[in-house]
Amino acid sequence: MAHTDHQTMRRVLRREIAGTIGLLADEHDFHAMRRYRSFVFDDHTTYLRHVEALLKGRAAQGSHTTLALFDPEDYAAFCAEHGLDPEAPASRSRFTAELAATGPTIPYDGSPLATLVPALVDEAVRQATWEYATGLLTRLGPCPTCGEDIGRSAFTRASDLVVRILDTAPPGDRHLVCSVSGTPETLISVLHADDDTGGTVGLDEAEALEFTSILALGLATHSPGGLVMRISAPGTPDRVYGWRLRRGGLVPLTAAEVFDAYCTDIESGDLISPEPGVDYCAPPDLGEETDQEHRH
Question: What's the CA gap between 2 and 134, in Å, rounded?
Answer without folding.
Answer: 56
